[in-house]
Specification:
Length: about 350
């Protein structure tokens, strides 16, 4: 896929403008968005992603258009699972409802910047070392096995990451909320506020999620431009999704198993690709293993859509027949979305 420099620049400028609009216009007044507001913005961002994918189809062909949609759907489905952790983080820091939208926006912008660096590093590794596909594939298969084994048991568990722990120890902090401010003065000393810690936590946690999602999308497309734009569009709607589907998350009781299957499928796909482009001298004498099947992108997209559809349908049907207590045993205690 030949992407001109001006296309990269236009993409970067449009992305900055969209997130600047979110931060400076939508986020200028801290508030909890209504269902209508969240649904409107989410529909807008999804519409943009669909139009972008159609544009890829028209300008670059069906192959790259299909790769974009496969990557975007994968990133979006993984993001839905990540929302469980975001809910727990908000609860752990007791973030006021009217400040949660702003915290999410800033955290997502941080995550996007860090993911862009991660994507560039992954593209460089793939370009220079074909054996990296073995590592990506094995990592995804291991992650899939771990996710399937744990299921939803650890959704209520959150362990503070090393970065946040370091910040808390290194800088003086106040436990009092100061609105959107990340810094405040207390007895003449500059201190960090809970908002600063929440934003750092959200941003670094999402980067940890990228350890799964970036290798997964590289299993669907080798084009850095498509990898980046799929991540951008997935993150664009993440904040609205957080507020819109809150209660629905508790009913997706089989989501972890569906995502485990997807990660395992993509991991196997990556290993097969690694075998085709093999250059490791201790494997088949450094020659490609051409008997390994090559999974076409259309089949990957079909598997992704089918898995998400089946997982959602089975989850909703099973959840509908459960009592609240039974559902809590699978997904953890229900979060009170209506409380301030």
């Amino acid at each position: 896929m030949d992407v001109a420099n001006w296309v990269w620049w236009v993409t970067a400028i449009v992305t900055v403008c969209v997130f600047a609009f979110d931060l400076l216009i939508v986020g200028r007044r801290p508030h909890e968005p209504s269902m209508k507001e969240a649904a409107t913005y989410l529909a807008f961002y999804i519409g943009l992603a669909v139009l972008f994918g159609i544009g890829i189809f028209i300008t670059s062909g069906a192959r790259y258009g299909t790769e974009f949609f496969a990557g975007w759907l994968t990133e979006y489905s993984l993001s839905v699972d990540n929302l469980f952790i975001f809910i727990i983080i908000m609860g752990k820091f007791a973030v006021p409802r009217h400040l949660q939208q702003y915290a999410l926006m800033v955290g997502i912008v941080m995550a996007l910047l860090m993911r862009a660096i991660f994507i560039a590093l992954g593209a460089a590794a793939i370009e220079n070392f074909s054996w990296v596909f073995y590592i990506f594939g094995a990592f995804l298969i291991w992650t899939a096995w771990k996710l399937a084994r744990e299921g939803s048991e650890d959704e209520d568990e959150y362990e503070e990451n090393a970065m946040v722990a370091w910040v808390e120890k290194r800088f003086p902090a106040t436990k009092e909320w100061q609105g959107k401010s990340m810094f405040a003065k207390l007895n003449g000393q500059r201190v960090i506020t809970p908002m600063f810690l929440v934003i750092v936590t959200l941003g670094t946690t999402d980067l940890l999620f990228a350890l799964d999602s970036i290798p997964a999308i590289y299993g669907l497309t080798k084009e850095p431009y498509l990898v980046l734009t799929a991540n951008i569009f997935a993150l664009m709607g993440l904040r609205q999704l957080y507020f819109l589907i809150g209660g629905l998350l508790e009913r997706l009781i089989y989501l972890s198993y569906g995502l485990a299957f997807l990660l395992g499928f993509i991991g196997v796909k990556l290993v097969f690709h690694a075998m085709h482009v093999n250059e490791l001298p201790f494997i088949n004498g450094g020659a490609g293993i051409h008997w390994a099947p090559e999974i076409p992108i259309w089949l990957s997209l079909a598997v992704i859509i089918g898995t998400l559809a089946i997982t959602t349908i089975l989850s909703l049907r099973a959840s509908a027949s459960m009592s609240d207590q039974e559902r809590d045993q699978r997904t953890g205690p229900r979060r009170d979305w209506e409380e301030d």
